[in-house]
Design brief:
Chain lengths: 276, 276
Amino acid sequence: MCQLLALNSNQPAAITFSFEGFVARGGLTDHHRDGWGIAFFEDTGCRLFVDYEASITSPVAQLIKHYPIKSTNIIAHIRRATQGKVSLPNCHPFMRELWGKYWVFAHNGDLKNFHPELSGNYLPVGVTDSEIAFCYLLQSLRERHPHREPCRAALFASVQEITREIAGHGVFNFLLSNGDAMFAHCSTNLHWVQRAYPFSTAQLTDCELSIDFRKHCYPNDLITVIATKPLTSNEDWQQFSRGELNMFVNGEIAEQYKPAAERSKPVVLAAVPHAC
Amino acid sequence: MCQLLALNSNQPAAITFSFEGFVARGGLTDHHRDGWGIAFFEDTGCRLFVDYEASITSPVAQLIKHYPIKSTNIIAHIRRATQGKVSLPNCHPFMRELWGKYWVFAHNGDLKNFHPELSGNYLPVGVTDSEIAFCYLLQSLRERHPHREPCRAALFASVQEITREIAGHGVFNFLLSNGDAMFAHCSTNLHWVQRAYPFSTAQLTDCELSIDFRKHCYPNDLITVIATKPLTSNEDWQQFSRGELNMFVNGEIAEQYKPAAERSKPVVLAAVPHAC
């Protein structure tokens, strides 16, 4: 399996602190040594860094640790290969263009007997089930909305339908972003934490590093961090339910789906406008 | 205008030496300060680095200068904006997927009254004429060969036809690669040099740096470097004719087109097999 990390915020934020702990899992505190990658949206552009070296030794990872690229949507991934050899084309995140926007995707899990018919608009370059799932997801979004990107609510509904279909084939924890919104789906294991005023100090679990967010954040900042396993020992990480899909916008949940069995739990939706 | 740099070779090679001189043109010895980018193919994967900072000050460019990523196909670009503001989505090279391969494109020039009908398979994310040209080029290739990549000769013929159409709108010097072949087209200004046995010493024109390739290359290495302007002062750089399109494979010209007026000049085609 692999591990996922994402950031969604209302102001461009650096992920250097969380990335420091995450990278340690790529060979130091955990065994995800088969490559890594990170994508930063800036404006409508995207910087994508991928490497098949273990993140703990990769020169590119060292750059990212010390170069505070600020973004409102960031997706990172460290890989432990289950399908596909250790090579660059099999490293997540993957990137494609749809409706004149870049879309970025990273997956943690394993899909069985998943051989969707791909029409050719999006074809995998590597040989992972993850990239096939991403291609099928984008192809299906395009089939549902062939001319332009729909409003957020309709987009969320489409992503949810396609996710449910793919998740029927196995473990499908994923992160997906188009630079506006961050989709996060949990099959088995995913957590998130929101950092907001009044900010406090956080301590990484994977290395001896803490940060006092009061020195780095403004009162209006809202920053959500999503990770396979909590990265800090003293923050209020919330666990996703199995089957839960969230769309984060500006650091808050804008749309949410939970399977029926989970709906008795309270669901708080942020007041993010998304009129169709 | 902008400047282009490419490498095509028969064995993975580093571009650090040529890149050192090229980067100097991004704010030190020339005025191309409006962003830069570089793409390295490895296996079927691709590492793409883009930055809107001047290449001479960019931390990512510093990484590339000191991190010898080896590749048989590399495309780099430094930008001086003529269309589109200085921002990440307007930085070259651009990358898309076609027929299950990544395609990378960088352009030097300016296209006028170029508003092709884009069907939606490839849409620009930024606002440059260059990205529109790339989208139209891939769309046209897909229309001509909807199911799979054709053989090299047919691919070259299609790229040449589409190039001629786009070049009717203005200056269209470009580099294009799918990881197998490197296409290079000249409207106004493009040069190339082949480094082969017996290797010698080369001296950069843009900074005080020389290299003795005899210490870095094997006898069978064939390395072609393409650049808007020659990067070294003591190598046999050849100037492209206006309208010339070359497809380099394994460090040699595999296919070539020159307009009729240029055909009286001798053309040497390497014996690269490309049976359809």
